[in-house]
Amino acid sequence: MDYLALTESSSGGSGSSFFSLIVYAALILGYWILFMKADEPGWMSLIPFLNTWIMFKLAYGAGWKCLLLLVPILNIVIYFAFNIRFAQAYGKGVLFGIGLALLPNLFTLLLAFGRSTYQGPATYGFL
């Protein structure tokens, strides 16, 4: 193999890795802000299972419902229902919730850095 070909192909991914790191850092900041908007400690957004539990608590009022994500096939329905309820908890509509499910990186940042405020668990909606 040619050494030059190996170095060229391996260095091409460093820009995308840096971009991914920036997006990930922005998402961490976005979740931190969403937690603070709901009067939850921002650091809880950093702990993997706990952040999901808290997000379900914010959307449904009960964090244990995140365990339904472990049920095959049902987890797809729960995922979309959760995102809709999460958007409603921050005063957004069903379409925003669908956007949150399909493009989570973009819509999470829109929700965090927008003017939305936490209004409590949605008492209406799907599931």
Report on this model:
The chain is mostly helical. It has one domain (13-113). Helices cover 64% and strands 0% of the residues. The chain has six helices and no strands. It has helices spanning 3-11, 14-37, 48-60, 74-89, 94-102, 104-113. The relative contact order is 0.13. The mean pLDDT is 88.
Give a short synopsis of this structure.
The chain is an all-alpha fold and 127 residues long.
Topology, please?
Layout: H1 3-11, H2 14-37, H3 48-60, H4 74-89, H5 94-102, H6 104-113
Helix pairs in contact: 2-6, 3-4, 4-5, 5-6
Q: Could you tell me the number of beta strands?
A: 0
Count of discrete structural domains: 1
Number of helices: 6
Strand/helix succession: HHHHHH
Unreliable runs: none
User: Strand percentage, roughly?
Assistant: under 5%
What spatial form do the alpha-carbon principal axes imply?
globular
Kindly state the percentage of residues in helix.
Answer: 55-70%
Q: What structural class do the secondary elements suggest? A: mainly alpha
